[in-house]
Design a protein that fits this description.
With 370 residues, the chain is an alpha/beta fold. 31% of the residues lie in helices and 17% in strands. It comes from Cylindrodendrum hubeiense.
Amino acid sequence: MGDSARTRSPKADAPATADVENQHEDLATSQAMLAPTHWENNDGDEDASDTDSSLGDDTTSSTASISSSILEYRVINGRTYHAERGDAQYWASNDAQANESLDVIHHTSTLILDGKIFLAPLKKESVAKVLDVGTGSGIWAIDFGDEFPDAEVVGTDVSPIQPSWVPSNVKFEIEDFTLDWTFPDDSVDYVHMRFLYGSVPDWDGLFERAYRVCKPGGWVESHEGDPMGYSDDATLKEGSALGEWGKFFHEGGKKLGRIFTPLPGNLQEKGLKEAGFVDIQSKTFKVPVGDWPKDKNLREIGRFTHLSIETDVEGHISFMANLLDGWTQEKVTLYCMQLRRELRNRKIHAYYHQRVVWGRKPEIQPPSED
């Protein structure tokens, strides 16, 4: 970011869609991902001198009674991942360390949104049922349940990693969002989806399912990021660990048949429009990585972005590295060591993009009297 950008909020830093498209195209056509052996001889010689409620006891609020097959986690490089289930392919770990990172990411997202956890124009009196798709640790659903105590909040995920002690209006269910959803048509007032990139085989199909379960007049909101890193002053170097970060997901996504970069293709907006939503709005944010910004609010966001990555670097990339040739556990460890060095370097002014898009399902029009 330039100096002028550092004095504004993330909202003011929202780039035009074309800018995101162009930046991503530049990265996509840059040099290929470095070989795993590159990190064996990397001595980290970068200049790092600038481093630095009510509780419910109802059994429906617990995932303790689920079948044992759901708990048959896959193990990759010592980390656990969700059990094989349908067409689900979530790439991040589901253990305690990963949950801690998810909670930090949630806090970072609230900072980006000026303390909010949603942007759709919801009214408490008209929100009776809420669906949080891909709930992860469940922290968003819990926070929403606290803010909307009269609403029933259901979080779904392929992993039963959510807490059992939650507000009485919150519950969690095991569900693969890539399959048919079990919720009735026109039954949900608000559908929330966050950071599903890399797990969605069909983005249009995702929003079609959300449209089906959403009540007429209800809202669907999608939060997505782009793992590709950028800098406006060329401090994020080609061949650096931070510069290579997004390539893990880009190359791994090719193997999975999944897209990790929904922003350049406007997949959220297009999906909502194709499904039939109206009043679609979008906000794109520049999210700094590290505490390099001069602006106090942006610096706080950058610190938590840094923390969310550093808390679980290995859990973020082990699954993807396992798909790519030559990435042994030792080489992943060496890469992660270098990435942590760069995360602490204030001279690297890296950021990524995050976008929030929301739309309304049209009300049913009364039949004409003609």
